[in-house]
Amino acid sequence: MSDAPLTDITGVILVGGKSRRMGRDKAFLELEGKPLVERLLSVFKECFSEIILVGDNGQRFSNYDVPVFTDIYPGSPLGGIYSGLYHSTNRSIFVASCDLAYPNSAVIQQICSLTNGYDAVVPVLSHGFETLCAVYSKNCLPAMQAMLEGGNHRIFDLYPQINVRSVPYAQLAIADKDGRAFLSVNTPDEFDAVKKQGRVIMNTITDKLQVRSKIWLEMDGEPVFGQGREILLRLVQKSGSINAASKEMGIPYRKAWTYIDAMEKRLGISLVNRLKGGSGGGESTLTPEALMLLEQFDTLQQGFQEFVDQKFQAMLDQLNVSGGKDDQHQ
Asked: What is the pairing mode between strands 51-54 and 9-14?
């Protein structure tokens, strides 16, 4: 990923201040010598040019030289997301709660790289959508406002009203090397476990069970297109360069070129327009056919993932296990 902070997405940290389950202000719990909010701010500064905090008692953060905005609709994470979007100078925000124990810049940047054409980009973990480690655009504001004014604070109920890209954890796992990027602390017991062991040992069936799925397209028994090729094309679209895309994926330029060439030959269409510019150089753009392929593959992936998630949730319901975590934050 690029080393430069993003200028078109604002980093928003929810610092609600209630911390009812923890019994004290989670933002200032110290982990490895630093308050949680300071750990998150350090990572956000690597990722975003604009950072804002949303929550009450803004004077708590007077030493951090970061603007703090009061919730317009107080009392819920959805209200915090709305306030962050409202005050952001950018069209999109990446939002996280201040109780994130091990924020990971590579994971955050990967999520932010998938925003093109979507109102929200939300990771999907074993328990479902990770609503507070996600990107939201200002296109969400009208639906959010209607929900909040109607007394509905469930973030999950927003998603059918907007264009959401769900990102399976498998797509982020390579960046989450220690498996802790989404670990949050909500109770004293969880925080004690994190301090002692560096991770919370999950003890519910929901957290132990995981459903994994993967889609790829084949032709005559040979793979043609899948998640790896999708990421490659999106990185070419983002960087304008096959060379830059291969470096970001951590693969040799020749291998990236081979993948693209094989896709084009098997599909019988051109996917990348290339302008020569030296060894590994030159500008590259996606063809209209490639853009359509990405759009259709996204639709296929999202529909398949929703189907799998529904079946998985139905199985958990049979075990009388609830997998939702919508209300555990802020």
From this structure: parallel
SS3 107: helix
Structure tokens that stand for 189 in this block: 């017991």
Which tokens belong to 23?
């019994």
**What distance in Å separates the CA atoms of residue 54 and residue 252, rounded to the nearest whole number?**
42
CA nearest to 173, candidates 104, 101, 102: 104
Domain 203-330 falls in which CATH fold?
A: Arc Repressor Mutant, subunit A (1.10.10)
Looking at the chain, the number of H-run helices and the number of E-run strands are 11, 14
Residue pair 44/51 in contact (Cβ under 8 Å)? The answer is yes
Secondary-structure breakdown of the chain: helix, strand, coil percentages, each rounded to the nearest 5: 45, 20, 40
Percent of the chain scored above 90 by pLDDT?
52
Kindly report, as residue ranges, where domains of CATH 3.90.550.10 are found in the chain.
Answer: 9-201
CATH 1.10.10.10 positions along the chain are 203-330
Q: What is the pLDDT of residue 193?
A: 76
Residue 323: its pLDDT value, please?
Answer: 36
What's the whole-model pTM score? 0.60
Residue 208 has pLDDT above 60, yes or no: no
For the domain made up of 9-201, the CATH class stated in words is: alpha beta
Q: Is the pLDDT of residue 186 over 90?
A: no
263, burial (CB in 10 Å: exposed 0-12, middle 13-18, buried 19+): buried
HSE at residue 199, side-chain half, CA atoms within 13 A, is 8
